[in-house]
Design goal:
alpha/beta; eight-stranded parallel beta sheet; eight-stranded mixed beta sheet; single chain; 10 helices; 22 strands; 30% strand
């Protein structure tokens, strides 16, 4: 694979945004940044910002493949298409479903990960995220209500065995019976628990955080909202120390002013840009299946398709994370550097996968996303290989 250096205007490194210079890549892994031109091949990306590869920690699939398909080849096809759009790592996210089928989905994701060769150029899978089935009916959203159950560590252990230990994050409603016991048990295993699809009060949510929950599922959506006499789940997301708040940054699930309110309250260092993209992401408008439920994609959004042919509530996004980064900067909520870190470093930390992805560090796989000055996508590298090569 050899040695080369990336020349660019800016590099988002762990300590600072470095201006100009060169970033070494040696046999597919990062070397050091240097201000002086090295004596090797130079790949010129003048005008670009070089970022760590984007990390999507809440995403159900892409390019007509979804985690619910139990199809390892489909997971890898999604990974290739995601990399072409700037995402170099994703945490495949399941839905509320029959526990046995969730186990099969975990096994298929694990198989996809295991069967990749050294020449595979697609988004990495640093973990699996279980979105459900421990939710409340009131905020079930686009999750299938037929499979809502109470949280138990025994069923989690079954899923984790099927996943080959890859599950890094599990979501639940804070008010469910046994929620705090489940949270503390998973915290002891090093697994993140995330509060969502929940009608919990502020105090119930705080109890879950005190038990070890550290993340909030797509803040504002599918949860008891903020009221001045009832702060609810959203209020807890905004105010609890050290927790992370996911936010869908398409401007449709949450309007920009509400995103700004969250970032102002939470701080960009604990706000995670996600897509919550469905399997139909990257596809043309039309009717699809998502989490076992029919949906229709139109106008850049997915809606539940009702039996009478009309559309119901929002089912999920078809956003790419690169577009989400651009959105929050265009809306003047954060700087470009902050937005990039919210979709890389912050995201990786929130899911406990920061030891694998999210940073440009010597010795790490050379996964990079290149942005033009207007934050449109220029190129993506996975393991030192351009996806456009």
């Amino acid at each position: 694979m050899g040695t080369f250096a990336i020349k660019a205007d800016r590099f988002v490194l762990p300590g600072a945004m470095m201006q100009g210079g060169y970033l070494m890549v040696e046999d597919g892994v990062f070397g050091s940044w240097t201000a002086e031109e090295p004596a090797c091949e130079i790949r010129d990306y003048t005008g670009c910002t070089v970022a760590p590869g984007l990390v999507d920690t809440h995403i159900h699939g892409f390019y007509n493949h979804a985690t619910t398909d139990c199809d390892p080849a489909g997971i890898n096809a999604s990974s290739v298409e995601l990399a072409r759009r700037g995402t170099t790592a994703w945490i495949p996210t399941t839905f509320t479903d029959d526990p046995e089928r969730i186990g099969q989905q975990c096994a298929a994701i694990a198989e996809a990960d295991e069967t990749r060769g050294d020449d595979f150029v697609g988004a990495r899978i640093p973990g699996i995220y279980l979105e459900g089935p421990f939710f409340t009916m009131k905020h079930v959203g686009a999750q299938n209500p037929a499979y809502l159950i109470e949280p138990t560590v025994e069923v989690f252990d079954m899923w984790q065995e099927k996943a080959g230990g890859r599950i890094v994050k599990s979501a639940l409603a804070a008010e469910k019976e046994g929620a705090c016991a489940y949270i503390s048990a998973l915290a002891a295993k090093g697994v993140v628990t995330s509060i969502g699809h929940s009608d919990a009060t502020y105090d119930e949510t705080l109890a879950a955080v005190n038990a070890g929950a550290t993340c909030f599922v797509h803040t504002y959506n599918g949860q008891r909202g903020l009221h001045h006499r009832d702060p609810g789940v959203t209020g807890a997301a905004m105010t609890t120390n050290g927790t992370y708040a996911e936010i869908i940054c398409d401007g449709r699930h949450v309007v920009p002013a509400a995103i700004k309110a969250l970032v102002t309250a939470k701080g960009w260092q604990h706000t995670v840009l996600i897509t919550d993209c469905l399997g139909c992401g990257g596809m043309p408008e039309g009717e699809y299946m998502s989490g076992g439920l029919p949906v229709v994609m139109k106008g850049g959004l997915c809606y539940l398709l009702l039996e009478d042919g009309t559309t119901g509530s929002i089912a999920g996004s078809v956003l790419t994370l690169a577009q989400g980064v651009k959105n929050v900067v265009d809306w003047q909520i954060v700087t470009a550097e902050q937005a990039i870190r919210m979709a890389t470093e912050v995201a990786a930390r929130s899911a406990h996968v920061d030891d694998k992805v999210g940073f440009i560090l010597p010795g790490r796989a050379a996964d990079m996303t290149f942005f033009n000055n207007d934050l449109t996508l220029n190129d993506t590298y996975v393991g030192g290989v351009s996806v456009n090569a």
